[in-house]
Amino acid sequence: MTHHPGPPADAGHTSHAPDPVPFGARLRAAMDARGPLCVGIDPHASLLTAWGLSDDVAGLERFARTTVEALADRVAVLKPQAAFFERFGSRGLAVLETAVAEARQAGALVLMDAKRGDIGSTMAAYASAFLDAGSPLFSDALTVSPYLGYGALSPALAAARESGAGLFVLALTSNPEGHEVQRAADADGRTVAETVLHHLAEENAGAEPLGSFGAVVGATLGDLSAFPLSVNGPLLAPGIGAQGATPADLPAVFGDAVHNVVPSVSRGVLLHGPDTTGLRDSAARFADEIRTALG
Ligand SMILES: O=c1ccn([C@@H]2O[C@H](COP(=O)(O)O)[C@@H](O)[C@H]2O)c(=O)[nH]1
Q1: From atom 1 of ligand 1, which residue's Cα is the shortest distance away?
Q2: Which of 85, 117, 133, 288 has the fewest Cβ atoms surrounding its Cβ within 10 A?
Q3: EC annotation (predicted)?
Q4: pLDDT, tens digit (0-9, with 9 covering 90-100), for 79-88
């Protein structure tokens, strides 16, 4: 697979032609070319301050631009955390739109971490916002929450198929509070997380080289061999760095599914900014550790 992982040539404008190559194939190509590391763009107020920036839209804009310029030409995936842009209202969203377009233009796949989930009719509007090729916030993939029922995600699945985008469905999140919901079992003893993973395996059946519908599975969770992680789709693994997990943990957590893992680091890289070399060197160190861990 030699397809360029980046966007169509008109990225940066508000109109995008649907990419005929499904997200899973584009992601596999990007992982092969650049390694699997995903870096989060999480402009925490504390990071803006640490970077010598003001906690306002100007600071946000500088933070996002610096991160994109430092990393979009070398990591497989950039993952803007929408919350940190939304807190500045419409002007924050304008910064997010620009960051998405510039990151895609530079060759990174953009995973919008917005964790959307609602009844189907409202889910269709979220899908339109992030997964319709003509939307200003169109992204290569979107995180979604299945806790209104996996079936309520149908409009997002349909929109992603239409535009060649992907989804990452919350299954086993990196935070300890997730357990009481995600590990709750039904009458047959099947946990919520297992149910989500089974749906994803069905979604991705037969897809090559990789399905477009992934799961979010924290790198912090220890041995997950009790869960059916082989969904023939990507597994976004947040929790490396600031939350305490390390690349060396990945094989023990993910077992046979480790080669479909997209390890994700936000603060662990970002705290080395605003210096471009600091950001790049930090990302390169994580990438090296991941390569070593995955053999
Ligand atoms: O289970 C999850 C799902 C998403 N996240 C998000 O990833 C980053 C983690 O940031 P770090 O600075 O590397 O801790 C953040 O945007 C979370 O909202 C997660 O941590 N766990």
Answers
A1: 173
A2: 288
A3: 4.1.1.23
A4: 999 999 999 9
The pick from 39, 42, 183, 267 for probing ligand 1's pocket by mutation, whose C-beta has the most ligand atoms within 8 angstroms, reads 42
Could you tell which of 44, 63, 81, 271 is best to mutate to test the pocket of ligand 1, judged by most ligand atoms within 8 Å of the CB? Answer: 81
Å from CA of 239 to ligand 1 middle? 6
Give the domains, in start order, of the chain with CATH numbers: 36-117+266-295 (3.20.20.70)
Is 79 a residue of the active site?
no
**Is ligand 1 within 6 A of the CB of residue 260?**
no
Task: Report how far residue 177's alpha carbon sits from residue 270's, in angstroms, rounded to the nearest whole number.
Answer: 25
Closest ligand 1 atom number to CA of residue 270: 12
Q: What tens digit of pLDDT does each residue of 187-233 get?
A: 999 999 999 999 999 999 999 999 999 999 999 999 999 999 999 99
Q: CA-CA distance, 236 to 217, in Å (whole number)?
A: 6
C-alpha 259 chain-centroid distance: 16
Query: For residue 73, which amino acid is it?
Result: D
Of the candidates 136, 156, 125, 140, the one whose C-alpha atom is nearest the C-alpha of residue 15 is: 136
Phi, psi of 187 (to 5 degrees): -60, -25
- The Cα 229–Cα 214 span in angstroms is 10
Residue 261 has pLDDT above 90, yes or no: yes
CA distance 197 to 162: 22
